[in-house]
Structures are given as C-alpha cells and as structure tokens.
Design goal:
Protein name: Probable transcriptional regulatory protein KME60_32425
Radius of gyration: 18 Å
CATH class of the largest domain: Alpha Beta
Strand content: 15-25%
CATH architecture of the largest domain: 2-Layer Sandwich
Subcellular location: Cytoplasm
Family: Belongs to the TACO1 family.
GO molecular function, one term: DNA binding
Distance between the termini: 36 Å
Order of helices and strands: HHHHEEHEEHEEHEEHEEH
Main location: cytoplasm
Oligomer: single chain
Largest sheet: 4 strands, antiparallel
Number of helices: 9
Structural class: alpha+beta
C-alpha cells in the first residue's frame, strides 16, 4: 500500500513555495465562500466548509469575517456575490512543467489577463482548458504528523478506505483516497488517535517533468510565487521534480 513518492515530493515542493508567502486573508475567505456555495452553508454538514473554516481560524481570521464569507457563499450577504465563480486555468512553466491554477473570481477577463502576464514574464505560457489537466487526477489527501507506528497507520488507513500512504519527513505521512471518501478517512484516522494536520482535495500528477537547469528552476519558483500571490488564485499545482540541492539553490 505504501508508495506514491512522487505525490509526496510534489506536495513538499509546493509546501516550500507556499511557506515563503502564506495564504492571504482574501484567499482563505474566498475558500470559505467556495465551500459554502458548493454545499450546504453549515459546517456541520459540509466537510469542505468545515476544513476551510479551520484553516482560516489557524491563520487568525476573525469570526466576523468567517461568518461574512459563509453568508456570501450562501447568497444571504446583503452585498451579494452572485458574480463569483470557480474556474481552473492551465498552462506550462519553464522546462515544460505542467501547471494547474484554481481560481475564484468575479471577472474572468481580469483573472486571465493577470495569469497570462505572470506566465509570460516567468518563462511560461497560459494554455487552453484541457492542455495539461489530462496529466492529473484528483484525490483526497489527509496529512498526519507524529507517526510512531507505521504498521498501525497501514491498518487504520485500510480501515478508513485509503488507497495508499506515503511516509514523509519528521514522522509525518500523507494518506490518499478517492474524493468521496475523504471525510470518512479523515474521521477514522482522528478516532484512532492520529494527529491530522490537514485534509484536502489535491490534483496528483500522473507523470512528472524533471527540472535540472538552475535558471529554469529559479524561473519556475518565481512563476509559482507570482501566481500564488494573486488574490483570485486559490491553489497552484505542478508536476515538477527537482533534486534537493537544486531546489535549495533556486530558492536561496
């Protein structure tokens, strides 16, 4: 059952980039709006909304802001947000790296223009819908830390309907499952005493593009940073692979 090291590597690479910037209040609030709109606007009955709220609270977003975001997603906020929509953009970065960008916007033209500039200025290009998404599949991922017994992790993961797991760094792990089983897996792991640090839907690449050129590596990280910093952007996912030495050098 263990495996999928490429999945874990991509996540760690993305986490390194995200850690430099952190999510803004706007992005976290919009994640709540998306979740409230995609299901019932009650965290008790909406797993996606519940996890979005948890992340917002960890980031220090005030409860009033969270409640306002829920109301916007539900369509009950007086200003209204009926023009907002979720949309995915696709493109290529340096070294032919595939990039998926998930956004939440009230103006497609503005968002597309901002993304096009970000891609073109950093060695990439914004493509048509479907140009790279065929390389990815969406999975549910539960992140854990403090793993002391890998055999117990295997046993509980199977009980929770997981497809696979991957041990990462510092006694941490990622457990993968089908989209519809994410909440069940998350609850099973928690009930068995595992420390869950995150549960999310993630695009997983089926093949990877290796980056070996230092200049291309620096341009790639700059592109991901630039895309992630845009308020309309919720997530940026790539399929790059890079050795640790080049990664450290590129991000210095």
């Amino acid at each position: 059952m263990a495996g999928h090291s490429k999945w874990a590597n991509i996540k760690r690479q993305k986490a390194v980039v995200d850690a430099k910037k952190g999510k803004t209040f706007t992005q976290l609030s919009r994640a709540i709006i998306v979740a409230a709109r995609s299901g019932v606007p009650d965290p008790a009955g909406n797993f996606q909304l519940r996890t979005a709220i948890e992340k917002a609270k960890v980031a220090g977003i005030p409860n009033d802001n969270i409640e306002r975001a829920i109301a916007k997603g539900a369509g009950t906020f007086e200003d209204g947000n009926s023009n907002f929509e979720s949309i995915r953009y696709e493109g290529y970065g340096p070294a032919g790296v595939a990039i998926l960008v998930e956004a939440f916007t009230d103006n497609r033209n503005r968002t597309a223009a901002e993304l096009r500039v970000a891609f073109s200025k950093n060695g990439g290009n914004l493509g048509e819908m479907g140009c790279v998404s065929w390389m990815f599949s969406q999975k549910g991922v539960v992140e854990l830390e403090g793993i002391k017994d890998e055999e117990q992790l295997l046993e509980v993961s199977l009980e929770g309907g997981a497809e696979s797991y991957e041990m990462t760094l510092d006694e941490s792990a990622e457990v993968f499952t089908e989209i519809g089983n994410l909440e069940t897996l998350n609850q099973t792991l928690k009930q068995k005493g595992f420390k869950v640090t995150d549960a999310e839907l993630r695009w997983i690449p089926g093949n990877n593009a290796e980056v070996t050129d230092p200049q291309q590596a620096r341009s790639l990280f700059k592109l991901i940073d630039t895309l992630s910093a845009l308020d309309d952007v919720q997530n940026v996912t790539t399929n790059f692979e890079m050795n640790e030495q080049l990664m450290a050098l590129s991000m210095a």
